[in-house]
């Protein structure tokens, strides 16, 4: 049974986090008994929820995205396709739990930043750039040059805008690509590319997430031009009260139903207008939706009830480690372990394997994924310790990613820019961000400028690591190619 396989996979991915937290608890950073106990059974919720979510995604979300993308292209009306991309991007992002979590965390440290304005701004940015990504596929523009042009625009706005918004904006770009948005957008891209012919078909299967995640970055950077906000914020001394398990499940259910409602509405609209699916397909989709809802409820309950409190508590405790290189090493280990439990990472790597016909190993992609995120969290600790501006890391990092795109195969470049958004999933936006905020708070820094930015670093480093994998793959392919007999 597919669900049983998913349970085995997710158990193997979550175990490293359990082991790391347990080792820290029994050695250098003991947690309160109640907090540690909640963490252990919360981990079971995460395993069960992640397994159900991945199963449901394969049954409903991914096939629906592929069918919708193919149906829209076959209409041969670019206006309908682009308008659909705009609407899909907006409605899914508004309901994305990850965006809700990030906006509430930001407003907690700076109440002058309106959560509703942030959510609307982020959603419109995703919608516009999803349309832009679809337009690129239709016109056959190079992904490499498209992404370069958009990031140059982002750099320009960041330079002339308010630097206070840079960490928030780049974190928004990472948080946008959550457990609902990523599978659908990736599947939509694959669906659009399937009706195309030629060598670029495989390349165009990826890249939509990478372009769509630029939208919220640019949109948030534009906020101070239209709605000036006081650059307040700093320490949050409010005691964190962890809700009971029943209240967590209830609140998670409410969030998930809100998240799934737009997707279900889109499903109905597409079914009655373009898809006209058979009864068996509808039953399979309903089954998948139920798996997805149940999985997300359990997953979010586990994340909100255990990972955020534990991440914050560990951040506060480990901030006092001496020498400070131990804190950096801890970040390195955290990053490599947490990315393995990200739901969308498994979805992306599985689709990479399918689209490439198995020539690109899922395990190898995960190794480079993990290495990139490990470096990102370590860099976040360095930034907090030495008060390094986020732009001092992001600018050379993205410059390196753009340079590598000139040498990496186009397919790997598109995959890499998708992976940046995928890596910064709900675990990064909860556990890792809470850890960074805890460290910044305990060290007397300003979490708004030091703690936030963690998600953006997690989104950046896979752009480099996976393109390096692409270059190595290209070199190996050339070596393995038999020499022509003259």
Q: What structural category arises from helix and sheet content?
A: mainly alpha
Radius of gyration: 21 Å
Nearest-integer average pLDDT: 81
Please provide the ordered H/E string of secondary-structure elements: HHHHHHHHHHHHHHHHHHHHH
Helical residues, percent: over 70%
> What is the β-strand count?
0
Total helical elements: 21
Biggest sheet details: none
Q: How many discrete structural domains?
A: 1
Given as residue ranges, the uncertain stretches (5+ residues, pLDDT < 50) are: none
Span of the ends, CA to CA:
53 Å
As a percent range, the share of strand residues is under 5%
**So what's the overall shape?**
globular
In short:
With 486 residues, the protein is mainly α. It has 21 helices and no strands.
Keywords summarizing the entry:
globular, 21 helices, 486 residues, mainly alpha
How would you describe what is shown here?
By secondary structure, this protein is mainly alpha-helical. It has one domain. The chain is 78% helix and 0% strand. It is built from 21 helices and no strands. It has helices spanning 2-26, 33-74, 78-94, 97-109, 115-139, 143-160, 166-175, 181-194, 200-203, 208-212, 214-221, 223-226, 245-275, 279-318, 325-338, 343-355, 362-386, 391-404, 410-423, 426-442, 454-480. The relative contact order is 0.15. The model has no long low-confidence stretch (mean pLDDT 81).
């Amino acid at each position: 049974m597919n669900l049983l396989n998913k349970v085995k996979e997710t158990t193997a991915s979550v175990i490293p986090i359990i082991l790391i937290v347990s080792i820290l608890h029994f050695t250098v950073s003991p947690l309160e008994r109640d907090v540690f106990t909640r963490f252990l059974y919360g981990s079971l919720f995460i395993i069960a929820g992640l397994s159900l979510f991945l199963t449901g995604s394969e049954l409903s979300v991914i096939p629906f995205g592929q069918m919708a993308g193919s149906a829209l292209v076959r209409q041969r009306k670019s206006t309908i396709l682009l308008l659909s991309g705009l609407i899909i991007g907006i409605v899914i992002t508004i309901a994305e739990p990850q965006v809700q979590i990030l906006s509430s965390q930001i407003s907690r440290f700076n109440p002058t930043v309106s959560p509703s304005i942030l959510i609307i701004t982020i959603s419109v940015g995703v919608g516009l750039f999803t349309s832009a990504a679809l337009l690129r596929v239709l016109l056959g523009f190079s992904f490499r040059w498209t992404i370069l042009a958009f990031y140059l625009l982002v750099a320009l706005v960041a330079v002339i805008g308010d630097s206070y918004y840079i960490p928030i904006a780049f974190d928004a770009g990472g948080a946008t690509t959550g457990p609902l948005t990523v599978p659908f957008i990736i599947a939509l891209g694959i669906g659009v590319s399937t009706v195309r012919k030629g060598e670029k078909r495989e390349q165009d299967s990826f890249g939509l997430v990478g372009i769509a995640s630029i939208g919220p970055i640019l949109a948030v950077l534009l906020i101070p031009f239209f709605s000036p906000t006081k650059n307040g914020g700093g320490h949050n001394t409010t005691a964190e009260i962890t809700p009971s398990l029943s209240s967590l499940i209830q609140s998670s259910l409410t969030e998930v139903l809100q998240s799934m409602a737009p997707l279900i509405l889109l499903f109905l609209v597409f079914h009655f207008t373009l898809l006209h699916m058979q009864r068996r397909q509808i039953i399979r989709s309903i089954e998948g939706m139920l798996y997805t809802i149940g999985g997300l409820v359990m997953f979010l309950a586990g994340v909100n009830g255990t990972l955020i409190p534990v991440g914050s508590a560990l951040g506060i405790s480990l901030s006092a480690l001496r020498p400070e290189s131990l804190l950096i090493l801890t970040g390195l280990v955290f990053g490599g372990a947490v990315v393995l439990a990200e739901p969308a990472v498994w979805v992306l790597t599985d689709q990479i394997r399918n689209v490439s016909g198995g020539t690109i190993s899922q395990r190898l992609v995960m190794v480079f994924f993990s290495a990139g995120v490990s470096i990102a969290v370590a860099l976040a600790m360095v930034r907090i310790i030495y008060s390094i501006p986020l732009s001092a890391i992001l600018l050379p990092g993205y410059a390196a990613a753009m340079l590598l795109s000139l040498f990496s195969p186009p397919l790997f470049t598109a995959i890499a820019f998708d992976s940046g958004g995928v890596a910064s999933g709900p675990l990064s936006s909860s556990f890792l961000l809470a850890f960074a905020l805890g460290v910044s708070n305990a060290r007397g820094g300003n979490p708004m400028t030091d703690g936030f930015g963690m998600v953006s670093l997690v989104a950046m480093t896979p752009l480099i690591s996976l393109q390096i994998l692409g270059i190595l793959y290209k070199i190996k392919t050339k070596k393995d190619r038999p020499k022509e007999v003259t």
